[in-house]
Design brief:
Layout lengths: L2 E5 L5 E5 L2 E6 L2 E7 L3 E6 L5 E2 L1 H9 L4 E4 L5 E5 L8 H9 L3 H25 L5 H5 L12 H14 L12 H22 L18 H6 L4 H15 L5 H8 L5 E4 L2 E4 H18 L12 H6 L3
Parallel strand pairs: 1-5, 2-6, 5-7
Antiparallel strand pairs: 2-3, 3-4, 7-8, 9-10
Helix pairs in contact: 2-10, 3-5, 3-8, 6-8, 6-9, 6-10
């Protein structure tokens, strides 16, 4: 099972030892985990050191190393140069994709996100129909900005009327930052593994954003983080403590309806990235987008 490794204690050293990631403090081993089980390594701590060999081993497995700031938002992500056996052809197809296909892809992703937001509100007992109805307003490329309209209705009901989403703020915003960092790392890994380039986005296009495509593809999965953070904050307060981190990291193993069965979030993200790569190559859009889990599952996240 894919696991997120979080390094939050100062002065730890990361190294490779016989197929394991070993974490040490001075000459004492703190713990180890099989490299093949690691989905990503997230580093918050000061004074963390690592060997070159462990970084190359993680790169060989497509596992990103995410370096975070004090607000738990990512500052840098280390990713492998090679991802997929047909990477060259797929990258050319991605770069040469026509604007109508890109805009239709973004339309489908926005509809999927709004669907998940509506399901999340319904699961916590909030009125969800106004958000669900916005799905009908999503146009190619979301020129009507239905995503932003949904967000204005969604956030006060998900997190309270006084809440404002601001990544630079502490408390609930910091918890969301950490959850989204986990999701972004898993998505960046999936994008590279699918032979796509994370910088070339469908909608996100900030010149300084090296992970625009990852930010695009993670959108439908964000409400899972939101539900989890809401419950964590209600139960233990808005603290980014070890328990909260472990709970948020475990979300990548949550089963989602996809196709005719259930698929872990980490696998669902991979299937979405692969389906986008195939769509670029064929010129025909066929995205593997997730379906919301049942209301009991959503309401139970983080509790």
């Amino acid at each position: 099972m894919d696991q997120i490794v979080d390094i939050s204690t100062d002065g730890r050293h990361l190294s490779r030892d016989r197929g394991f990631l070993k974490v040490s403090e001075g000459s004492k081993e703190i713990g180890r985990i099989p490299l093949d089980q690691i989905a990503a390594v997230i580093v918050h701590a000061h004074g963390t050191t690592w060997s070159c060999s462990v970084l190359t081993e993680l790169a060989d497995r497509g596992a990103p190393v995410v370096l975070c700031g004090a607000n738990h938002a990512p500052r840098s992500v280390l990713l492998p140069l090679d991802g997929h056996h047909a990477q060259g052809a797929r990258l050319r197809a991605q770069w040469g994709a026509k604007a109508p296909l890109m805009k239709q892809a973004w339309k489908q992703i926005v509809i999927s996100k709004i669907t998940m937001q509506a399901a999340a509100l319904e699961a916590i007992g909030e009125a969800h129909a106004p958000v669900a109805m916005l799905r009908r307003k999503v146009t190619s490329g979301d020129t009507t900005n239905a995503e932003a309209q949904a967000a204005r209705y969604y956030w006060p009901r998900m997190m309270g009327t006084d809440f404002r989403r601001d990544p630079s703020k502490p408390d609930v915003n910091a918890l969301l930052n950490y959850g989204y960092t986990v999701l972004r790392a898993a998505t960046a890994r999936a994008v590279v593994a699918a032979g796509l380039h994370p910088t070339i986005g469908l909608y996100h296009s900030n010149r300084g954003n090296a992970f625009a495509l990852a930010d695009d593809l993670m959108e439908p999965f964000r409400p899972l983080i939101d539900c989890c953070v809401r419950a964590l904050a209600a139960r233990n307060g808005p603290k980014v403590d070890p328990e909260a981190k472990q709970t948020l990291a475990r979300l990548i193993a949550l089963d989602l309806p996809l196709g005719d069965g259930l698929t872990p979030v980490s696998v669902a993200i991979c299937k979405l990235a692969v389906s986008l790569g195939q769509s670029f190559e064929s010129g025909r859009l066929n995205l593997a987008l997730p379906t919301p889990p049942d209301a009991l599952t959503l309401a139970g996240l983080g509790s």
